[in-house]
Every structure is written in C-alpha cells, then in structure tokens.
Amino acid sequence: MKIAIVGISFCEYIIQQANGLAALGHNVLVVLPVSLIYTTVGRAIDSLVAVGVTIFACIELRPWKSSYYSDIIYAISSFKPDVIHIHDNGEMITLVLITRFRHVPLALTIHDVVTHPGADSKQKLRRKIIKFLLKRRADVIHLHSNILSDKFKILYPDLEFKIKVIPHGALTLFKSWENELIEREPLTCLFFGRMEKYRGLDNLVHIGRVLKDMIPGIKIIVAGQGSELEKYKDQMDALGIFEIHDTFIPNDNVYKYFRRASLLLLPYHEASQSGVALMGLPFGLPVVATDVGAISEVVIDKIHGRVVASGDITGFAEMVKTLLYDNTRWKHMSENCIEKTDSLNFQRLAYEFAKLYEQAIARKKNL
Fold first, then answer.
1. Which CATH superfamily, name and number, covers 174-343?
2. For every residue of the chain, which 3-state class applies, written as one string?
3. Domain parsing of the chain, residue ranges
4. Pick from 245, 248, 305, 250: which is nearest to 274 by CA?
5. Which of 7, 54, 57, 294 sits in a 20 to 30 Å window from 63, CA-based?
6. 2-169+345-366: what fold?
7. Which of 18, 23, 24, 26 is nearest to 1 (CA)?
8. Which sequence ranges form a coiled-coil region, renumbered to this chain (predicted)?
9. Comparing C-alpha atoms, which of 168, 186, 177 is closest to residue 286?
10. Do domains 2-169+345-366 and 174-343 have the same CATH topology?
11. What is the strand order of the sheet 263-266 is part of?
C-alpha cells in the first residue's frame, strides 16, 4: 500500500508511525514543514527514518504563494497514494489537499477532540471551518482512546460510524539521542512540556508547597516554555524546591530530564491522551497524574503510577511521597512502564493503521 501522511506537528509521532508501516512493507510519503523538522529532529532525520519512508519537507515561509501548494500537490500526485492520512490541522494546505485529492481515500487523526483551554483555544474562524470540513471529508476518523471516542460521539453523533480507536504509541524516538548514562535522582520529579493553562502549573505550585514540608530535599524540575510559566516563576523561586528551565528543550536533550527524574508529574486541569506520559514510558518513569481526559487509559492506576482526582492537591502530594519512599513499588511500576512501551510500539500499531486504511479505501469505493 502507498500511504501519504501529512502533518504540521507531531513530528516524532509521524516518523514512528511511518517507520512502523514501512516495516510491514508499505511505502510511505511523509509531508512535514521544514521548520517543524528543524526544531524537532533536525539533521538526525535521515538516521531516524526507515527504508521505505520518503520525507518531503515543505518550505512554508510564503504559504500564500501558489508554489507552496503546487510543490506539495506535485509531491503527493507523483507518489500516487492509495490513501492520504492527515493529522488534524486547520491550515489552508489542508483545504487544498481535501479539495485536490477528493477522490483519494482519506484517514484523519484527531489528537484533541476538544481544544485545550489557553493559547490553543484562540483559533481563527478559518481554522475552525477547515477542521469542520476535514471531519466531513474524512472516510475514517482515528482517535486515541475510548474516552475521547465517547466525547466525539456526543459532539458529532452523525460521524460516529467513521470512528476507529487506535491507542497513541509510546514515543520511543526520544531515546535515539541518549548517548550517556545519567543516574536517577531519588527525590526528583519532572514537570515537562508546554507551559499552558490546561497543564496545571498552578496546581504544581500548590503541590510543591505541600511537598516541601513532607519531603526534605524534594526537587521538582520544570522544563519547557509557555504563557503560564512567567505567572508562577516568582512563587516557585520563593519555595526553593523548583529547578526551572524556561526554554525550548531540543530533542537531543530530552532524555537528560527524563533520566534524572524519579517521577513524572501531570497535575493537569484538562487533557487528551498526554504525549508527555507517552514520552516517559520508554524511560521507565512512573507517573502521578490527575484523572482528566484519557490519561487513565495510558497511566493505569497502581500499575504505571497513581491517578488522583482532579483538584485533590493533598492526595496528589501524598501519592508523590508514597512512590518516592517505596523503592519496591517504584521499581515494579517502572518495569510496568517499560512493558507497556512494548505493547504500544508503533510497529505493533501499524497493523491497526493498515486496517484503518483498508476501511477508508473500502468506504470510498462504496460511495
């Protein structure tokens, strides 16, 4: 099968997905923006991509020029895909593709059924319209969890027949840059990623106040950028237990943070499936998280960490203390995380994606 995968984000996910499909003998064309490749995998992309995968890096500096669209259309047309797989986005290129390739079967992955509060919620009307049209045009719609599927059915009951659930794969690609041995710090926790409102940085500050009294020597690494960090930086500095890295973390440094930490903290207000949790699994990093979105389908309570009711600051802190002081339980959960990484290997999931594409092709034929 010839599969064209198009995205404007989720670079690591898409590369692993493409590699998994190529391992089954499929030919895959991946279309990604140059800027995304540059800020994520960079020059390492050639060594990360499997045989059978072709990368088309599109230059999006002047997307209003016709050549921007014609280059992408030419690349996909020349490839002659049996199916196109778009990772949900509302850019104009999406509208161009679903119009130009209207006779080609289309699979759509929706990462967030409901837009996260904060910066993500401030979408232009144009993007909302394009996303709406994309859902209607898709022959099959891929979601990552049963919880998100149930939410989608409530919002779009007439599209329920298109839904297929395939879990989010473990993001093992981040281990590719690991080139040194880093010892875990026994009383160190990690809060990683985009510092946006839904991530619960305010919850983390409250949890930190409780943990400071509970655990002498506790350290919480906060690594990433976002609008919320500036709001709480002074409070975190005053507590004296936070190590703040207010910067974009390049892929070749990610492993250092996940190796240093003993626990990954997800005190979120809202979530989908949490890519951060799926980054932590391959490093054997147990999680303490709030029970929001589909996190509980990734982090099984008492198996891969602990899941706490949203808003339970004291309960969250208690779970952190319990896991940091119970080495036997921590080790067991860490081993479970590694085991789950294998079950969520993209090469395993590739069989499900192939079935998804067959379903899209069959549905297009029957129209």
1. Glycogen Phosphorylase B; (3.40.50.2000)
2. CEEEEECCCCHHHHHHHHHHHHHCCCEEEEEEEHHHHHHCCHHHHHHHCCCCEEEEEECCCCCCCHHHHHHHHHHHHHHCCCEEEEECCCCHHHHHHHHHCCCCCEEEECCCCCCCCCHHHCCCHHHHHHHHHHHHHCCEEEECCHHHHHHHHHHCHHHHHHEEECCCCCCHHHHHHCCCCCCCCCCEEEEECCCCHHHCHHHHHHHHHHHHHHCCCCEEEEECCCCCHHHHHHHHHHHCCEEEECCCCCHHHHHHHHHHCCEEEECCCCCCCCHHHHHHHHHCCCEEEECCCCHHHHCCECCCEEEECCCCHHHHHHHHHHHHHCHHHHHHHHHHHHHHHHHCCHHHHHHHHHHHHHHHHHHHHHC
3. 2-169+345-366, 174-343
4. 305
5. 54
6. Rossmann fold (3.40.50)
7. 26
8. none
9. 186
10. yes
11. 242-245, 219-223, 188-192, 263-266, 287-290, 305-308
Token pair for 111:
């990462």
Question: Whose CA is closest to 135, among 101, 160, 115, 104?
Answer: 160
Give the phi and the psi of residue 239 in degrees, each rounded to 5: -70, -30
pTM of this prediction? 0.93
